[in-house]
Specification:
The structure holds 2 protein chains of 2 kinds.
Chain A: H1 2-32, H2 36-50, H3 54-71, H4 73-82, H5 84-106, H6 113-141, H7 151-156, H8 162-184, H9 190-221, H10 225-230, H11 233-252, H12 258-280, E1 283-286, E2 292-294, H13 302-330
Chain B: H1 3-42, H2 45-79, H3 81-114, H4 121-150, E1 156-158, E2 161-163, H5 167-171, H6 176-204, H7 209-244, H8 246-252, E3 264-266, E4 269-271, E5 276-278, E6 281-283, H9 286-292, H10 314-342, H11 351-359, H12 363-377, E7 382-384, E8 388-389, H13 390-393, H14 400-427, H15 429-433, H16 437-440
Antiparallel strand pairs in B: 1-2, 3-6, 4-5, 7-8
Helix pairs in contact in B: 1-2, 1-4, 1-6, 1-12, 1-14, 2-3, 2-7, 2-14, 3-4, 4-6, 6-7, 6-11, 6-12, 7-8, 7-10, 10-12
The chains are: A mainly alpha, B mainly alpha.
């Protein structure tokens, strides 16, 4: 029983990190691809929107990692051994981004250093989700090979492939898309909203193109992605629902309710994750030559699973209400009178 | 440098930095809560300014602590995958609870930093207290995991298999209580002295005297109380180590030969090959008393430990001497400070007392690093004491040395920026908080 709780929380943490952490990264990515006045407007809007909640958004990654190393120790160990290098690059992104965000908001003197913090923040906002995408792709691509004969095959070939890079690019575009949809709700005027809608349209096109790139790369490398996604009823309906809601979102962008837009965008990301995840479940890591590490078989001993499950259940009694109250308290923060902080 | 040494160095570096960020991140919220309380109770705006100034420090240190902590949760696997594969399910319980505590801390910090004038003042104050309490809980839980490495529990190790795993028993291992107490008090002492020291320096420069005096008084009180308590908790820890890890005790005390009425070795330079300590002062019987509460009792020396299981002696011994020396220095300053507050109020405004505090700014954190060195190097060659060797836990991936160089560069530049940022925060105090009252209302 507790096994399902642990697996459910792992999926939940990954999804929450994609939606919340992803939108958070996306803020930096969108900033990177805008210039001048738009960038300033965006930066200000995003600071008010994510300032109070960004630390919490990144906690989901920690929750996911802890579930992995306590509940699925062999999966964690294999991942960290064969995906050492992309994990390391992702960590560099996380440390650069987290500190640059705080430094640019908490440096008492505003001078040239701001340019540096801003640049580090924007580029690391792009690199971190890129490598997260590479890692996610490499888990299922089947290139991880514990019997690999040399350094290249074991530690580079495991992640450095066209499919991984394409999924990395898609993850970046998806984050930018989530963030730009999210910002629409933070617009203070019709003119701002038009700007944000323009950003969202650009990000949507980028995400669709990168999605196509992922399928192209999979085709070239002989990864049966189309079969995973379209080969079963769940995947097929998830993708159909995502596509339909994307069309709806595109139509609603100029005048639709911001909350509806956010729900649609979140729904699409969830469906994409579901379609790919469902095809593999319970496999979490696919190894070369078809073997796989399954979430069911690699589960930690019963007492550990039970303790972890209870810790997660009881923990969420504290976390979730506090988190919802945090989001509730600071929603549309930018329209309220601002105080010095 | 070989990959094994590189992996150990990278871990030491990462933890060495993380320990500073997280100590400050978990202790400063309490200073902040006291200042905030006084502002709400008295309406004295200086306390509000102190609270706001400190909250920026907390934000900076929490963020660096959070990212360096995130890195560590990955580095455990990146560097020690074979350790984590076996240890994860056994010592993972405190980490899963810590996840909650850390999450709550991040949420509460969001409320606190962005909640000025937005919530009921006492709710806002309460969120600041939650930051401190959950930060403290995180720290205590993480120490439980380290304590388990010193005092493994909650499993049976049979023919290389880890059987009958019980994560709850593993969490409540023998070393947790004494280690958590020692680390918590150390965090308060180190942060208290560091913060008080910085404000003392500003007072010596006669800048923003009221602001820095109020801030100094709060930080110094916390630091001084902790500095007085720390030797007591150190005594508990030493007796505990003597009982559980005689090899570590022998290494930190440079106690080579098992003997009754063992002498305490003060200072000196251990010569590991010859098995003796040169240039040291020896106090007969005192080691037996400190380790076992009895001047005559036998204290196990390194000669009773198999050569392949012996920890290095030079590093733990010197680090231990440094830690105890700094602890005594802080105890002395703390006692002077209490005497001043109780009997000699004039001393509180004297420059020599401020100079003492200013000089002791880094003392607490140096002691924390030294103590951390003692416990980690003193546990070698084991990663799980008596069960798994550190050398057997390291990643099979070659080239870790480049990762070590990368981390060194990252942590050093990060520290430079953090120090630079704090310097600018302090420098800007007159501009940010010393505006005349009629302007500050605007």
């Amino acid at each position: 029983m507790m096994a399902y709780v642990v697996i459910a929380y792992l999926c939940l943490a990954i999804l929450a990190y994609l939606l919340l952490g992803g939108a958070d990264f996306g803020a930096g990515i969108v900033e990177l691809f805008t210039r001048g006045k738009d960038r300033r407007l965006l930066r200000q809007t995003m600071y008010h929107a994510i300032g109070p909640i960004w630390e919490a958004n990144h906690m989901w990654l920690i929750i996911a990692v802890v579930i992995l190393f306590v509940g699925f120790p062999r999966i964690y160990s294999v991942m960290s051994t064969y995906l050492h290098i992309p994990l390391l690059l992702m960590l560099m992104g996380i440390i650069a981004r987290g500190t640059a965000f705080v430094f640019r908001n908490y440096d008492a003197v505003h001078d040239q250093m701001q340019v540096l913090y801003g640049r580090v923040f924007r580029y690391s906002s792009l690199l971190t989700p890129f490598f997260l995408g590479v890692i996610a792709a490499s888990l299922i691509a089947g290139y991880i090979d514990p019997q690999a004969p040399d350094f290249w095959a074991a530690y580079m070939g495991s992640w450095l492939h066209g499919f991984g890079l394409a999924v990395g690019a898609f993850t970046v575009a998806l984050c930018a898309y989530l963030a730009s949809v999210y910002t629409i709700g933070e617009a203070n005027s019709a003119a701002d909203r038009r700007r944000f809608v323009r950003e969202t349209r650009r990000a949507t096109v980028a995400a669709v193109l990168c999605g196509a790139l992922v399928f192209g790369a999979a085709q070239l490398e002989g990864i049966p992605l189309a079969n995973w996604v379209f080969g079963n009823a769940v995947g097929l309906s998830a993708i159909a629902a995502a596509t339909a809601s994307l069309v709806a979102l595109w139509v609603l962008l100029p005048d639709g309710s911001a909350a509806v837009l956010r729900v649609l965008a979140g729904f699409q990301a969830t469906m994409i994750l579901l379609a790919v995840g469902y095809a593999h479940f319970p496999a979490f890591v696919v190894l070369r030559h078809g073997a796989a590490l399954s979430l069911v078989r690699e589960l930690a001993p019963a007492k550990t699973t039970a303790a972890l499950g209870w810790a997660l259940l009881v923990g969420s009694l504290f976390i979730l209400p506090a988190l919802f109250y945090l989001y509730y308290s600071f929603q549309r923060a930018s329209t309220r009178p601002e105080s010095a902080h | 440098m070989d990959d094994f040494l590189a992996a150990r160095s990278q871990m030491a570096l990462s933890l060495g930095f993380h320990i500073i960020y997280s100590c400050i991140g978990m202790v400063m919220p309490f200073f902040m809560a006291v200042a905030h309380y006084r502002w709400l109770r008295t309406g004295n705006a200086t306390y509000r300014n102190v609270t706001k100034a400190w909250s920026k420090g907390v934000a900076i240190f929490f963020a660096t602590g959070a990212v360096s902590g995130t890195m560590l949760s990955f580095e455990l696997g990146l560097l020690w995958p074979r350790f984590m594969e076996h240890a994860g399910p056994i010592f993972g319980m405190p980490f899963s609870l810590e996840g909650t505590a850390f999450f709550i801390e991040a949420i509460a910090l969001g409320f606190f930093l962005y909640g000025w004038d937005r919530f009921h003042p006492w709710f806002h104050w309460f969120t600041g207290v939650v930051v401190g309490v959950s930060g403290l809980a995180s720290g205590i839980l993480v120490v439980a995991a380290n304590a388990w490495m010193n005092s493994p529990a909650g499993f049976d190790y049979v023919n290389g298999q880890y059987l009958n795993i019980d994560p709850i028993q593993a969490m409540f291992n023998d070393a947790w209580a004494s280690q958590a107490l020692h680390m918590t008090v150390a965090a308060f002492a180190a942060t208290g002295f560091a913060v008080a020291g910085v404000h003392a320096i500003m007072l010596l420069k006669r800048q923003n005297v009221t602001f820095h005096q109020r801030a100094f008084a709060i930080a110094a009180a916390f630091g001084a109380v902790a500095a007085v308590l720390q030797p007591l908790s150190g005594d508990v820890s030493a007796k505990d180590v003597a009982r559980r890890q005689p090899a570590k005790l022998a290494a930190m005390e440079a106690h080579f030969r098992t003997e009754k009425a063992a002498a305490l070795v003060l200072g000196g330079l251990p010569d590991e090959k010859a098995g003796q300590v040169n240039y040291a002062v020896k106090i007969p019987g005192l080691l037996s008393f400190l380790a076992h509460g009895n001047f005559a009792q036998e204290v196990t020396g390194l000669d009773r430990i198999r050569p392949e299981d012996r920890p290095p002696v030079l590093v733990p011994h010197l680090a231990f001497q440094l830690m105890v020396g700094l602890g005594m220095l802080m105890l002395g300053i703390a006692l002077l400070y209490f005497w001043a507050r109780w009997r000699r109020r004039a001393w509180l405004h004297s420059r020599w007392l401020l100079r003492l505090f200013a000089a002791a700014t880094p003392a607490g954190f140096l002691a924390v690093e030294a103590g951390w060195t003692v416990t980690e190097v003193g546990r070698q060659p084991w990663i799980i004491n008596g069960v798994m060797r550190t050398a057997d836990a390291v990643t099979p991936m070659p080239g870790v040395v480049y990762s070590f160089y990368l981390f060194t560069a990252v942590y050093l530049s990060l520290s430079v920026v953090v120090v630079f940022l704090l310097y600018r925060q302090i420098k800007m105090v007159p501009v940010l908080y010393d505006v005349p009252p009629q302007v500050s209302l605007a």
